[in-house]
Every structure is written in structure tokens, then in C-alpha cells.
Amino acid sequence: MAMKILLFHPFLKSMGGAEKLIYEYSKRSKHKIYILSWIYIKNKTFSFEAVYSILGNKLESIARSYFGRLLFLPLSLLKFPEDFDVLVISTSGISILSLLGKKINIPKLAYVHTPLRAAYPLDIIWNINYRFRQLKKYFYKSAYTIYNFLEKNAWSKLDFAVFNSYLSRKRALDKKLIDLDKTAIIYPGANLESLYYKEPENYFLYVARFNIIKRQHILIKAFAKFSKKYDYKLILVGGLENKRYFIRLLKLIKKYNLENRVKLLYNLPYQKIIELYSKALAFVHIPFMEDFGIAPLEAAAAGKYIINVYPSGNYEILKDFPGIYWIKERFYDEKMVEEVYKALEYFIKNKDELIEKGKENRKKIKELDLSWDRFAKEMDKIIETRIV
């Protein structure tokens, strides 16, 4: 019998991975999904059905701000309607606080894209080193101290949590937020059927939203050193999430006289991105300890050699693929620049062989079921057997 599920995700504001997961699950679940959000920017995200948004498209700029999202926390005091069979909270950290101070008389499950990265010990050190300067550091320290105080209590209200990777779950277990026997891993789906291979042109490709956590600046610095010896191009593609960081990248390109070598392309239609995958010489993916990461799966489906970094959620799927150069996370920018440079040079010195290994990635990924139908079935099964 189909159930009524209330799925809460606070910000539906982009074509990002979390919104994509909610969109695909709500379409494919055999249960009826009703979505609740604080912010819903219809023209910048997916075409959801059955959405109730408290503020609609108001305060968009604040919703996109790193600290600004904290201003929405008073909305977490609102009660959830209980004429549903299950409450599912889609969380990257903030939305879990909506469980505080409430007695909710229906089963409660979280799908965890990540526990709040900004409050995780390694990320705190990284943020203080690279994201925040001067007074923002002190505000940040106060914010994560308060958050850590509230976080454990909020997590204690959950009946079960599903994580998008073992890495993501490890963050929660490290902080003792939940018992292991109340957890499961379900990898997100990926639309890989439309990816295809074409003979490579002379560019490296990186697809990720423009944000410091994706570390496009490291790739540009490594490519500047690489370009002194080798004549290739670099294309960076992504959503324009952080304009200040995007401007920083433009200045970096100018500083290294790379205007004719490096292109920044933003908000491209997906068909154009697929075309760029198909013709890329190789794919580079170097975010800081990403909880999952769809882009390397797409690059593998396009038959491309991949320069990747671990630990990451996608490492759990791709670790045995033949056409991947794995960089162990070095944490510090200057060390990562050197590692990325070595990887680029290694690829060029062994180009013909590694292009062939990239083609093997395409064969390997076809052996896996990474479909959204698989994801929806696994989520439905957890809800039906573990918490209801």
C-alpha cells in the first residue's frame, strides 16, 4: 500500500546534486511524496511536483550565502504536519536542526548528503586556513560551537539515517551522532545513458560548481606550471554559485597569462556539458573530500581518463577502475598544486596508453547499476522495512 511521505529539504534553489536526488526520488518512488521547503526558486531548479514552500522565491541571495542560511533557522521552530506516514529530512547539516524541541509522532528518517561539513574537525581547520579571513573567523568559530551543541540533540530524534557514502557516514560516526545499526548506505543515482565517447581534442575538463570547496584555483595554478612545458587547454564548467570566487579565478587566469589557455564556462545546458565530456582529453576532479560526486561517474561513462582525489565518496565506486590517477588528499593548497601538476604531466607522458585506459572506464561503469530506479527501490525498501 502506498504511503504518504513528507520530504523536507530547506532550499530548492539550483540544479545541484541534492535537488536532483529529491527530484528523481519523488518521481520514481512507489509512495506519494510531498515536498516541504523554506525557499523554492522555480526557474533555477528542477520541475518538482507537490511542493509547499514557506517563502517561495524570496530572499534568494541570503539563501545562497554561506552564513546567510543561518538566518533561516527560526523557521526550524515551525511544526511539521503529521498527517503523513513518514517524515524524510534531506540534510547537509542545517535542516536536521528542524527536529529540535519537537515531539513528532511519525517515523523520522534522514537522507544525509553530508553531516554539516563546516562543523567537522578537518573541515574546520581547512575553512580557517582557506575560506575565512579576519573577523569572519571569529564569527565562524562561534557558529560551529553553537551548532555542535545543538547537533547531537537533533540527531537523537531520528529513527534511522541513510547516507550517500561510507565517507559521509564516517563523519557522523566520528562525532557519535548516531549508532551504526541505525544507518545504511544508498549511493545516489546518475543519468549516464546519454554520455558518449568521441576522439579527444586538446583540452582537460573539470565540471563542478564554482565554489572554493571545489578548488578550481588549485587546478589553475597547477595548469600554469604545466603550461610552461606543454601546449594544452583547460575548460572549467559549473554553476555560478559563488561570484566572488569566480572573480578570483578570473584574476588568477590573468595573473598567469592564461587567457588563451583556460576557459571558465558557467550555467551551460546539460547537452553542451555532455559534448564537452565526449571530446575531452582527460577529466580532472579535485574537490576537498567530497561526500559523493557525480561528475567522475559521468567522465567514466564518457570513456575518459580521470585525475581524481581520495578520500571521497566516489572513490568507493571507482577505486578499481583502470583509467584513474588517484591523488591522496594533501590538505594544503601548495602540496595539492604539486600533486595535480604531477598528475597532468604523468598523463601527457603516457597519453596514448592512458586514453585507452579511459575507454575501459566506459566498459566498467556499464557493469554497475547506478540508476535512479535502483536508488528509489532501495530507499522505499528502507522506509518499508526499517522504520515503519
From TrEMBL:
Gene3D superfamilies recorded for this chain? Answer: Glycogen Phosphorylase B
Q: What is this protein called?
A: NEQ195
GO terms (molecular function) for this protein are: glycosyltransferase activity
Q: Which CDD domains does the UniProt entry name for this protein?
A: GT4_PimA-like
Q: Which UniProt keywords apply?
A: Transferase
Q: What InterPro entries does the database record attribute to this sequence?
A: Glyco_trans_1
Where does the source fall among the domains of life? Archaea
> Does the record bear Transferase in its keywords?
yes
**SUPFAM superfamilies according to UniProt:** UDP-Glycosyltransferase/glycogen phosphorylase
Originating organism? Nanoarchaeum equitans (strain Kin4-M)
Task: Give all residue intervals belonging to the Glycosyl transferase family domain.
Answer: 198-359
